[in-house]
Amino acid sequence: MQARPPTMNDVAATASVGLKTVSRFVNGATNIDPVLAARIALAIEALDYRHNLAAASIRPGRSSKLIGLVISDLANPYYSSLARSIERVCSEHGYLLMSMSCDEDTERHQLLIDRLIAQRVDGLIVVPPRDDPNAWADGARWRIPLVVVDRPVTAPGIHTILADNAGGTEAATAELVRQGAARVAFIGDSLKLYTMRERLAGYRRIIEHDDLRLSARLTFTGAHTADQASDIVLSLLEKNLADAIFAANNRSTIGALRAFARAGHRLPLIGFDDFEAAPLLNPAVSVVAQDVAEMGRVAAETVLAAAQGLAPLVETHVLPTRLVLRGSEAKEISGTEWLE
Amino acid sequence: MQARPPTMNDVAATASVGLKTVSRFVNGATNIDPVLAARIALAIEALDYRHNLAAASIRPGRSSKLIGLVISDLANPYYSSLARSIERVCSEHGYLLMSMSCDEDTERHQLLIDRLIAQRVDGLIVVPPRDDPNAWADGARWRIPLVVVDRPVTAPGIHTILADNAGGTEAATAELVRQGAARVAFIGDSLKLYTMRERLAGYRRIIEHDDLRLSARLTFTGAHTADQASDIVLSLLEKNLADAIFAANNRSTIGALRAFARAGHRLPLIGFDDFEAAPLLNPAVSVVAQDVAEMGRVAAETVLAAAQGLAPLVETHVLPTRLVLRGSEAKEISGTEWLE
């Protein structure tokens, strides 16, 4: 039921008013016959007509100067840092950012998109929801300037900002192998997530198990929370099934660290995504760091350009990741000499 | 220039229309003479009249089902956890939350408040800005159901949710003294912040220095960032001026930990506000924990009740804090036995 979006012509026909008058109305002219103005307003509401903001905002004063952001979870430091970076760039350009989180709920995600469009934001930056990343985008992309971040969608014509998930994981896994690990476990979230599929692909560029049973015993993609990751790592430690841990997101890294603390011993570890306390732990935690500030900057500048009708070329940016080695990748740790 | 807010009578007079017609218009009746409707719409815009949402939303369908949240910094885990908790309760009640951060900028804060009201949110939850916490509230409190959290305002009649900052700090400082510290340093942010004034007051209930010079050498309220806190703690360590550190917010705690790592030795430490990695550090970091989930729940339920015209009694909730001792408060640490 992907209906054609209503046009200004439809509004004119419904209101029995000339196209020029409708155009003057939606562009903010105030000297319109109030009878006609009321008819146009009712037609716009009845049709759910959305004025093309990208074109309209070229006229000064017609823009809401608002950008909407829909992410998965405001309390996840990866997303809150991303939101902060986007907010900063919006602010530099005189725009405000409204942030909302959908908690990976497809229905709620659609509701947030609709609500932000109804609030007349000038553009949307969206992390697609895990279980159905594509459905919302077909509906949204003709209604509003749109940028997706972190995970792509299949709908064409959408600006997309991604990190090099596979490359970052490949480098981390290679380092763990270089440090002597034969059995590197992969602990991550659902493979419904693009980022997890990419990270697992990067891991498999290095770890190619001929033994399928071994591969199954070392690959875990059911860790949505830190506690779930912790349980998996505890079980690996108890059964001595792994030589090293690749934690495929910051939830899994925290979980692995909790498991080490509970079990009383550790394994070499690298996690995907940096976190503030990582350098303060003992050993300091090595990570694949995304350039979240840059991702936010590119996303914000792209959506602002589109909202201003500058129509940048639609493209997919893949930002490089960085392997930050701090000590936890090693088998032996250098001790606790900084502690008095 | 605190003008009387425009009333429905003012709209009726300006539009030369009866009060009943204005009332029917603002309550969504559609069978109004379009000429009158257009005149009313123009008068509402000219007067910047804001329909009393608390009363209006009793009628089903008239509510935007949106709540606005203005905090200091989305990327600070204290505020992002608070936002998450508020969002969850709003969601349970069928409301969506729009979160924005003002970065302690008074002008930006006012802009966010105005913008959220213009977006017709049903209610606002606000952390007042540091430098001028009161000015915005006089203007906002008659326009919209309002709850302030974390820091109070002087304007009367506003629901207020606070933590027991002084009591929590008093307990933490007493514990550091009990552990043998004579010179407990207080590291925090500006005393323009209500929370900092309260925490310093709690500290001073325990630490009463007769020697003013000593007091000045141990009280630091210029640490807005973790790096500024780190520099202060490094300098204390170098000059051996303190026996223990009370870090008055999570920025200062991270800063103290960075200083310990850089200096190669530590002091007994308790921080205000818990953070995810605190139990994973070595020694695990002791904190004064706020019940952020409960604070968010009370704030959300209060603003939703007010938005639905249930008019709860205006009151100030002070939520208790909890001293969580994990090891960092001690002079001697029990070692690193969990490390293999």
TrEMBL record, chains A, B:
Entry-linked InterPro entries: HTH_LacI, LacI/GalR-like_sensor, Lambda_DNA-bd_dom_sf, Peripla_BP_I
Keyword Transcription regulation among UniProt keywords: yes
Cross-referenced CDD domains: HTH_LacI, PBP1_LacI_sugar_binding-like
Keywords: DNA-binding, Transcription, Transcription regulation
All residue ranges annotated as the HTH lacI-type domain in the record: 6-60
Molecular-function annotations in GO: DNA-binding transcription factor activity; transcription cis-regulatory region binding
PANTHER family reported in the protein's UniProt record: HTH-TYPE TRANSCRIPTIONAL REGULATOR GALS (PTHR30146:SF109), LACI-RELATED TRANSCRIPTIONAL REPRESSOR (PTHR30146)
Protein known as: Transcriptional regulator, LacI family
Organism: Salinibacterium xinjiangense
